[in-house]
């Protein structure tokens, strides 16, 4: 649930508004100009005592951690969940705001068909039961980037329930073995995103950007079936791949399209669960794993030192690598759960058996029809890779986990005579190794699939040796010293009759450096 | 000309007896003369004259848009009007100019109607007197009628005339006063618990609440989303049907409007014979607080139907007594939720306090809302608290279902239309009315009307006769959901039988000859 965030440090802050596009024409002074360099309000960071998590080795074995996740995925759609405003990342502030998004009095929500279809599709891909009737509710809280004072969400009867997500955790020596794990999915609900608050502490101002307000979210609630940061991170990565394969969310964490809250507690196995904390707004997979592991360790230390765990909301500070209390709920927060949204009738979905005869296809959503359009899911893709190319399961994981790597691999396979096993090994070890070393994404690689395919062909026909091929890769990857090695090889092959300068020129031309 | 019905004046426009501009100017001048009634918050003179000019062109070119072309209308100030201030009679929205028209307003304008102005109400439509708005109370035109004045003279206890003015009822009192005082031919009200029917009864008008879902709420600033409907105030049933015909129908901007086919144009047949009708009289509506005059008129109306051959039967709506309490819980809960958006950030009033966000919210809302609104928000939030939700909100919803089922059962037993009082008594003087607080008054005044809102049914208040004091009394007809046309057809037949007298405002206005040219003789058929 997208609860209020960043509540601290509001004292002495004045409100200013970037202009609401085409919105209210209220007779008030001109809006204050927007401040360009906004700083997020993290002033309270320094006041927080740091938990110097000394690992108390004694009795560590007897603790078990329990981790559940609430994941918000922004639905990939042209317009918002309940209004016709466009959805676009990094548009000028308040340029994508309808009267409804700004909660002008008298405006009403109109449900976006695309968002419903995305929810159904995601539910089906995650083995959920799709509720043929679901309801919308209002969750109330006052916050400046929530113009209506409530969020429209699905609490009582969400669109999809009781699913599961299978993910693989690496284990064994060198982490080379993949163990499949399952996490249950409690529910998937449709809800509105909030706007963004931009805190300018220098001027004691908060600026509100409502471009994001009302964008459709899928909240995916994962049951507390995970036990460490790595499991959670792997599960989220798998979900991310599924959403991307479905096209229901771009799920780009850096752009905030996938945001994760983690519920964490520790207990002694066989005893009741411990008090849990919620770590909010984890926006990278790496930080997610770090934050969870830090929080688990913090709770263990706290309990072993006779302390107690408070049921509180915490945030993860990635620079300091620790979680800290957000201290935003001094009183008990009551969201006035959960008034039905009176302006939206129940959402009714159909399947082949319940579809009324003569129903206008534009007016109804057919679950079975959506099921037929489901694309291949990552687990199936991996299975196919294993069967088709005889690769190890963990290799198929790596191929899918790196953005663009699978496509690269498939393009190389298409163009080379080399054995698939060889291609796999070259792509996953040599090629990926170089990229990692240079900190490059697949899309930034100087080596094209065709170049690698050609190289592997030469290797396959024994025109060049494996070590020469590796050095070609090295050169292609702009390792300045590597070309000298190649020059040496050519000189050796020509019994030192060739001119080194000319060899270098020819090599550079051939390698199109 | 001003005293005519909408249909009559529409015919006069078509025949060229009067031009839209002339008609508009007459209404504007009457609005100025009756300013003391406080019926209008904003008079949109320029807009109306411009619309009249355009309408005139259309008539000249023989391109009239229909019955509403060139007809002056007024709109309650809780409907959004593009470019025209929309206040809800609250400090919170003083100066707020919506950038869009409510669907119903747009539909009226698309038919060529002239928007004379925005009418007064209780703040955010919370009240039953039209006395609790930030622009002051609305005065009932009947306070100044010959009929009422003459009765007052006979009464030795008659006090100072000026302080004796009567309330209009509410919360759409401004709209009712505007139509009743002949400043326009029809007005939009809103009806959440009786806010259109109640002032219609007190001002001698037809007040129609359509079925929930028949008319779009988009642009109506909500009180209770699940009960609000735009209401129609006119001087006769036919006029209400004409306006309904212009407004009814699905709206893609309001997902609660239904795709029921509705015949257009919305013509009402003249019922020659009521012998096939079954009229239900709910026994629970006979409450001790009901004035003997209203009770007697109610029973005479039933007799009238019976004597004309209709079947009149007593029916039971067993959960009626729980209705007003249930309404209170649901109403305040939705109010608490709906009012959350008024935080001073995007639009509306904002206080000067800027020490913190929370302090700014609190002061803005304290300054912006009156005690009634704040009281309802407070109780609504109490009902929605996690620990109270099951005990209040959920229970009230269950009771709401039982109340709706009561009506279904009554209609399933063969009843076509229910006949009830609209109010407990005729309008009371302002000074009398304010002896009780808003909550008490609302509970009393909505007693016969709010159950209909909880069930989403159509209902109409029809003026029946004058009381001993010379004041209008109305009776309510309730129909099956989406049988609005049948309901109005029965109401039209009844209206014709009772011949309710026209308000006589000679003493109020200098040149009332125009007003009275169409005066009908007061019928005595139902007089006591």
Automatic annotation (TrEMBL), chain B:
Residues 148-167 are annotated as: Disordered. Its EC number is 6.3.5.7. One of its GO terms (molecular function) is glutaminyl-tRNA synthase (glutamine-hydrolyzing) activity. The keyword Nucleotide-binding applies. Residues 25-488 form the Amidase domain. GO terms for cellular component: glutamyl-tRNA(Gln) amidotransferase complex; mitochondrion. Keywords: ATP-binding, Ligase, Mitochondrion, Nucleotide-binding, Protein biosynthesis. Pfam families: Amidase (PF01425). It catalyses: L-glutamyl-tRNA(Gln) + L-glutamine + ATP + H2O = L-glutaminyl-tRNA(Gln) + L-glutamate + ADP + phosphate + H(+). Subunit of the heterotrimeric GatCAB amidotransferase (AdT) complex, composed of A (QRSL1), B (GATB) and C (GATC) subunits. Belongs to the amidase family. GatA subfamily. HAMAP family: GatA. Allows the formation of correctly charged Gln-tRNA(Gln) through the transamidation of misacylated Glu-tRNA(Gln) in the mitochondria. The reaction takes place in the presence of glutamine and ATP through an activated gamma-phospho-Glu-tRNA(Gln). This is Glutamyl-tRNA(Gln) amidotransferase subunit A, mitochondrial. It comes from Homo sapiens (Human). The gene is QRSL1.
């Amino acid at each position: 649930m997208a609860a209020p965030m960043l509540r601290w440090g509001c004292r002495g802050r004045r409100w200013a508004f970037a202009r609401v596009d085409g919105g209210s024409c209220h007779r008030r002074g001109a809006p204050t100009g927007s401040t360009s360099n906004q700083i997020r309000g993290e002033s309270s960071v320094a006041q927080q005592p740091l938990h110097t998590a000394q690992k108390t080795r004694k009795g560590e074995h007897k603790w078990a951690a329990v981790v559940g996740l609430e994941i918000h995925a922004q639905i990939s759609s042209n317009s918002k969940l309940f209004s016709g405003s466009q959805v676009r990342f990094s548009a000028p502030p308040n340029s994508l705001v309808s009267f409804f998004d700004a909660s002008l009095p008298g405006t009403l929500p109109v449900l976006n068909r695309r968002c419903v279809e995305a929810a159904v599709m995601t539910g089906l891909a995650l083995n959920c039961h799709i509720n043929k009737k679901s309801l919308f509710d209002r969750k109330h809280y006052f916050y400046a980037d929530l113009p209506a004072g409530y969020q429209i969400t699905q609490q009582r009867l969400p669109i999809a329930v009781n699913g599961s997500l299978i993910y693989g955790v690496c284990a064994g020596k060198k982490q080379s073995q993949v163990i499949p794990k399952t996490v249950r999915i409690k529910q998937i609900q449709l809800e509105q995103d909030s706007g963004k608050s931009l805190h300018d502490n220098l001027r004691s101002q908060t600026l509100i950007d409502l471009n994001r307000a009302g964008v459709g979210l899928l909240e995916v609630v994962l049951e507390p079936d995970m036990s460490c940061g790595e499991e959670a991170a792997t599960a989220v990565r798998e979900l991310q791949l599924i959403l991307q394969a479905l096209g229901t969310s771009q799920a780009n964490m850096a752009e905030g399209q996938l945001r994760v809250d983690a519920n964490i507690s520790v207990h002694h196995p066989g005893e009741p669960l411990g008090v849990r904390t919620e770590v909010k707004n984890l926006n990278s997979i790496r930080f997610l794993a770090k934050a969870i592991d830090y929080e688990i360790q913090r709770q263990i230390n706290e309990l072993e030192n006779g302390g107690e765990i408070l049921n509180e909301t915490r945030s993860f500070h990635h620079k300091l690598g620790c979680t800290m209390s957000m201290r935003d709920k001094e009183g008990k927060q009551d969201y006035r759960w959960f008034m039905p949204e009176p302006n939206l009738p129940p959402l009714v979905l159909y399947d082949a058996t319940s579809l009324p005869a003569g129903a206008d296809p534009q007016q109804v959503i057919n679950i079975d029809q959506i099921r037929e359009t489901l694309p291949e899911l990552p687990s199936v893709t991996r299975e196919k890779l294993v069967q088709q190319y005889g690769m190890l399961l963990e290799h198929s994981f790596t191929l899918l986990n790196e953005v663009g790597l699978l496509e690269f691999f498939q393009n190389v396979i298409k163009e080379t005579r080399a054995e698939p096993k060889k291609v796999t090994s070259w792509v996953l070890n040599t090629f990926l190794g170089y990229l990692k070393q240079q900190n490059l994404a697949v899309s930034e690689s100087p080596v094209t699939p065709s170049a690698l395919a050609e190289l592997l062909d030469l290797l396959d026909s024994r025109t060049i040796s494996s070590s020469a091929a590796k050095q070609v890769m090295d050169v292609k990857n702009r390792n300045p010293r590597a070309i000298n090695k190649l020059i040496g090889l050519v000189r050796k092959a020509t019994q030192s009759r060739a001119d080194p300068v000319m060899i270098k020129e020819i090599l550079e031309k051939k390698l199109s450096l | 000309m001003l005293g005519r019905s909408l249909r009559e004046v529409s015919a006069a426009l078509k025949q060229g007896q009067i031009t839209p501009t002339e008609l508009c100017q007459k209404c504007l001048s009457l609005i100025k003369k009756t300013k003391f009634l406080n019926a209008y918050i904003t008079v949109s003179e320029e807009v109306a004259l411009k619309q009249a000019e355009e309408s005139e062109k259309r008539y000249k070119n023989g391109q009239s848009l229909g019955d509403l072309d060139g007809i002056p209308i007024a709109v309650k100030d809780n409907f959004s009007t593009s470019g025209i201030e929309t206040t809800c009679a609250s400090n919170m929205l003083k100066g707020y100019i919506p950038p869009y028209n409510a669907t119903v307003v747009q539909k009226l304008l698309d038919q060529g109607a002239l928007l004379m102005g925005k009418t007064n109400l209780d703040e955010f439509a919370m009240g039953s007197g039209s006395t609790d708005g930030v622009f002051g109370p609305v005065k009932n035109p009947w306070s100044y009628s010959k009929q009422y004045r003459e009765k007052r003279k006979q009464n030795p206890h008659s006090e100072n005339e000026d302080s004796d003015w009567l309330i209009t009822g509410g919360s759409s009192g401004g709209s009712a006063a505007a139509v009743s005082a002949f400043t326009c031919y029809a007005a939009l009200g809103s009806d959440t618990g009786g806010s259109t029917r109640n002032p219609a009864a007190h001002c001698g008008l037809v007040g129609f609440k359509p079925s929930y879902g028949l008319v779009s709420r988009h642009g109506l600033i909500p009180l209770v989303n699940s009960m609000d409907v735009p209401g129609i105030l006119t001087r006769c049933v036919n006029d209400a049907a004409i306006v309904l015909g212009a407004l009814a129908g699905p709206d893609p901007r309001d997902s609660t409007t239904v795709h029921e086919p509705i015949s257009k144009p919305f013509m009402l047949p003249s019922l020659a014979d009521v012998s096939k009708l079954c009229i239900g009289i709910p026994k629970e509506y006979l409450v001790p607080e009901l004035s003997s005059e209203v009770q007697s008129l109610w029973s005479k109306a039933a007799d009238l139907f019976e004597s004309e051959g209709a079947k009149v039967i007593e029916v039971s709506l067993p959960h009626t007594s729980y209705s007003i309490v249930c309404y209170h819980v649901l109403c305040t809960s939705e109010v608490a939720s709906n009012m959350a958006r008024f935080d001073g950030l995007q639009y509306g009033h904002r206080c000067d306090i800027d020490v913190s966000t929370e302090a700014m919210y609190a002061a803005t809302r304290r300054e912006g809302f009156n005690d009634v609104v704040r009281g309802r928000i407070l109780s609504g939030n109490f009902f929605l608290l996690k620990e109270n939700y099951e005990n209040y909100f959920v229970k009230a919803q269950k009771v709401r279902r039982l109340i709706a089922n009561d009506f279904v059962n009554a209609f399933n037993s063969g009843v076509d239309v229910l006949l009830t009082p609209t109010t407990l008594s005729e309008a009371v003087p302002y000074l009398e009315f304010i002896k009780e607080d808003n909550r008490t008054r609302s509970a009393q005044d909505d007693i016969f009307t709010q159950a209909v809102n909880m069930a989403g049914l159509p209902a109409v208040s029809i003026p029946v006769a004058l009381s001993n004091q010379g004041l209008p009394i109305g009776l309510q007809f309730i129909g099956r959901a989406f049988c609005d046309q049948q309901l109005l057809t029965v109401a039209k037949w009844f209206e014709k039988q009772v011949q309710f007298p026209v308000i006589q405002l000679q003493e109020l206005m200098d040149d009332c000859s125009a007003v009275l040219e169409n005066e009908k003789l007061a019928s005595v058929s139902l007089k006591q």
